[in-house]
Amino acid sequence: xxxxxxxxxxxxxxxxxxxxxxxxxxxxxxxxxxxxxxxxxxxxxxxxxxxxxxxxxxxxxxxxxxxxxxxxxxxxxxxxxxxxxxxxxxxxxxxxxxxxxxx
Length: 103
Description:
By secondary structure, this protein is of the alpha+beta class. The chain has one helix spanning 77-94; strands at 17-22, 28-34, 45-50, 56-60, 62-66, 71-75. The radius of gyration is 17 Å and the shape is elongated.
């Protein structure tokens, strides 16, 4: 019989969660897209939030690009997702906060 450390429990992710990282303390860091009334149907940012300590980091999908004679805004959701994943992974590796009880 496998120990509880070897058993993985699969639970449905909350609606809107696009990626999930397990913390050292057993909580999760969830990635979601942020929407507002000005950006539908595209999200404006990717948000990483720890479900235990509530630390979070928002990564904007729009980046300012500087040219030789001008600047412009470019929509780069893949870059924002990558930055959010990096933050989530780093936070998950160090966060020892326990998951919030579900009572």
